Amino acid sequence: MAHRYDQDDKPKGSTTYFHHTSVERAEAIMQDGVIRQSTGGGGDAVYGNGTYLTRLGPKRSAGEIARNNWDGLSGNHWEYMEGSGRTDAAIAIEMPAHEAGKVERLPERRDIHLYPGDLKLYNKNHRVYIRDQNGKAREYTREYQ
Questions:
Q1: What is the superkingdom listed in this entry's lineage (predicted)?
Q2: Among 1, 8, 100, 116, which one is most buried in terms of CB atoms within 10 A?
Q3: Tens digits of per-residue pLDDT, 26-80?
Q4: How far is 28 from 80, CA to CA, in rounded Å?
């Protein structure tokens, strides 16, 4: 589905964003029902506090996701992040229009978006994808509370 944008480059209508992470972190997120925001420590919040998202989904390769999400950091940090499993799971979040308008596309050549604060999943359609041994992402169908 094509998304329409207004003059401020904000999506109109619901929009799907993805949060890529490790399988362990995805399990914790689904248990809590919240993607906790990145904060200033440890280089995880280069553009400030908030929940970092992308429009690049799990059909993209793990390397492509890692380069998109972490290529701006020193050296080949993206290779470390891919190797440490930070692209093994993806959470697809369908944002209703009123919340999608809060998401800021960052001034980057990469596809990086920032949601202010923690991102609560309880009132949004969301799905989890996990990569198999061959790197193919498959939807995880276990039901969470």
A1: Eukaryota
A2: 100
A3: 999 999 999 999 987 656 677 889 999 999 999 999 888 888 887 665 567 666 6
A4: 22
From CA 107, how far away is CA 129, in angstroms rounded?
27
Residue 8 forms beta bridges with which residues? Answer: none
* Residue pair 20/86 in contact by the 8 Å Cβ criterion: yes
For 87-112, the pLDDT digits (tens) are 899 999 999 999 999 999 988 788 99
Give the span between the Cα atoms of 11 and 130, in whole angstroms: 27
Q: Are 130 and 140 in contact (CB under 8 A)?
A: yes
In angstroms, rounded to a whole number, what is the distance separating the alpha carbons of residues 131 and 74?
Answer: 26
Alpha carbon distance 38, 50 (integer Å):
5
